Amino acid sequence: MNIDIVKNKIESNLNKKVVVTVYGLRNKINRYEGVLYKTYPNIFTILENGIEKSFSYNDYIIGDVKIKFI
Known about the structure:
Blueprint: H1 3-11, E1 17-23, E2 29-39, E3 43-48, E4 51-56, H2 57-62, E5 65-69
Antiparallel strand pairs: 1-2, 1-5, 2-3, 3-4
């Protein structure tokens, strides 16, 4: 998967509701539900309850971050 493809996919869904699942160390899983807020050259952000959370495109590519569009 190419990073430009991922950026285009995320940019085309700005301001839409998403659920982001983050797979961390020691089988820790965090889920965030919010609105796809902004995109930057290396990260994208969601807005969850007025708090901005950022995620890396590279983490999405390797599978540590999953995005489900609602």
